[in-house]
Amino acid sequence: xxxxxxxxxxxxxxxxxxxxxxxxxxxxxxxxxxxxxxxxxxxxxxxxxxxxxxxxxxxxxxxxxxxxxx
Length: 70
Known about the structure:
The chain is an all-alpha fold and 70 residues long. It is 90% helix and 0% strand.
């Protein structure tokens, strides 16, 4: 996952720096692009945390049910 994010960030940076815009415009686009990547990354982390909590809850329930069967 880290490798994909690094490649994505590097691609955004290179693309923005090679664009035919003025420097200030390129930097603004770069920052905006990085903000978008940050937001998407945080959303994905939130989704993974939610899935992890759900899985832990299911595991806890299964363990409780198994202990009652003993």
